[in-house]
Amino acid sequence: MWTSNKMIGLYIALGVGAAAVLAWVFVGKTLRTRLKMERAIRQDPDINDWLVVFDWTPKVLYIPTIVASILASVVMFLKGTGLPVLGSINPEVIGGVWFAVFFVNFLVEEYNISIKILLITLVSLGFFLLWLHLLGWVMAFIRLFKNLAFSISATGYLLVGIIGLLTILISWLKGLFFYVTITPNYMNLQEGPTETGEQIGREDYNSRVDTSDFLERLLGFGRIIITFRDKKREPISLLVWRIQEKAQLLERVRGKFAIDLQQQGQLHQS
């Protein structure tokens, strides 16, 4: 029993967990994470306005698909239990709704859809449906989608949701060590778990906010783009969540200088 395959697998899992805990205990104090940086700046009396951001993976835009996958998985599991309320639900209907959410998410991630393009698309679709109605082909067009017969098992939906959540979690963990700190006097580019980074003066870079993707903006995301005076350096584009709040913070940070309290005291004395 103690040497069975299941027990060996359990030993490996416990060993990996113990190694991770020991590594965090001994190495955690040397790590320079985004959270530690935010705490240090918050405690600095000389800095009142600051911004720490990192680049989310574009796959974070698939959050509606992840939520739809988990809900579809729950519905399919409950349907398998034989509940009368869910017994009449067609699995192909669930699959069709899930596919529609996924397709919209794909368009949001793949293309920069401005509100102008969105309006043109909706108007064009309306004229197309009107043309089909005049010809009497609307129902025939709708029946084309019924032939897809798209259906996934409860386990399949759950697997899609878990993979999506893991992708977002990995992006967040990466953002702990690869991030940008912007203060009134400088910008710090952090590129690693230790003090590997670069400090750039405020006069050597410019920043702007891009929320031209309307559907991306509806999900609360936008991009902060940083360009450098040195034209040899490539611009940095950061996909940021809660872009409205971050844009306001960025505007305040870039609109002022910070002066050390000690220097202020000397100026008053003189």
> What spatial order of strands do you see in the largest sheet?
1-2-3-4
Basic shape: flat
In angstroms, what is the radius of gyration? 26 Å
Main sheet? 4 strands, antiparallel
**What oligomeric state do these chains adopt?**
single chain
| SSE order | HHEHHHHHHEEEEHEEHH
Ranges with pLDDT <50 over ≥5 residues?
260-270
Total strands: 7
Name the structural class.
alpha+beta
Count up the helices. Answer: 11
Structural commentary:
The chain has 270 residues and is α+β, with helices and mostly antiparallel strands. It has 11 helices and 7 strands. The chain has helices at 5-27, 34-42, 63-80, 84-87, 91-110, 115-135, 138-146, 154-175, 214-218, 243-254, 261-269, and strands at 51-53, 178-182, 186-191, 197-201, 205-210, 221-228, 236-241. The strands form 2 sheets. The protein has a 4-stranded antiparallel β-sheet, with helices on both faces. Strands 5-6-7 form a 3-stranded antiparallel β-sheet. A hairpin with a 3-residue loop joins strand 2 and strand 3 (186-191). Helix 3 (63-80) runs antiparallel to helix 5 (91-110) and helix 3 runs antiparallel to helix 8 (154-175). The radius of gyration is 26 Å and the shape is flat. The model is unreliable at 260-270 (pLDDT under 50).
What are the key terms here?
4-stranded antiparallel beta sheet; alpha+beta; 11 helices; 3-stranded antiparallel beta sheet; 56% helix; flat
In short:
With 270 residues, this protein is α+β, with helices and mostly antiparallel strands. Helices cover 56% and strands 14% of the residues.
